[in-house]
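Name: 28S ribosomal protein S14, mitochondrial
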Amino acid sequence: MGVFKFNLTVYSSLGFVDTYIFARKMLRHLIPQTLNSAFMTLACKMRSLFLPPRLPRSLIYPHQQTPDKTPDHHHNPEVERLLKEELCGYPPYTARKIRHGFQDAIMIRDYKRRQVAAHYSDLRLRLNAIRKNTILPKEIIDIASLQIASLPRDSCWTRIKNRCVVTSRRRGVQDRWRISRIIWRRYADYNKMSGALWGAWSSNTQSVRRHMFWPPPKNQSVEEYIERYYKQIADN
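Structure predicted for 28S ribosomal protein S14, mitochondrial:
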C-alpha cells in the first residue's frame, strides 16, 4: 500500500477525478493478487498439517564426497589386476570390437523365423507329400492344400535369409560358416578359421581339372586319369 499512497501523491496534481480513476485501477489489480497470495499461504499451511513428520538429521547418512586419486592413463596397476583376475584377460565392454548377442531387431526376427520353420518342418513335409501325390483322391489333396495354407507364413523355410551370426550383416555372407566376409577375414588372418589357408601361386597356375577331357588319352589308363582328377581336387 505504500506504493499505492506514493502514486496517489504523485497523481494528486491531476485532479480528483483522475486520482479516483487511478485508485480504482490500482485496487482492481491489487485485490486479486493479495487474495491469491493469501490463499496460497493458507494452502501451504494446510498441506503441512497432513505431511508426515520429517526424519531427524541424525538418521540420515551424511554423504561425504572424498575425491579419489585419478588413475594413470596408461598401464594402471589396478586396472591390470582387474583384467587379469576378475575378467581373466577378457577386455572390458568399451574395448570389445564385437558386440555379442542379438545385434538388431532383424536378427531377432530371423531367429524366430528359424524356430517357427523348425517347428512346422515335419508337418509341411507330410502335407506337401500329400499335395503332390497323384494317386490319392482329389478331396484329400484339397484338404492338405487348405491345411498347409492355414499354417503361419514364417513356417516356410524360404522365408529364412542367411545373415551373419556375429554382425547381422545380410550381404557378403559365407554360407558355409554363416558369417560375413569381413568377420571371416578377421578370424582367418589370426588363424582362428579352420581350413583357411593363405592364397599361394606358383608357375603352374593353369587349372588341371579344367583341361582334363573325356575320354582319357590313349597312353593313360582310366584309373590313373581318375586318380589324377581326385588328387587335384584334394590339392585345391
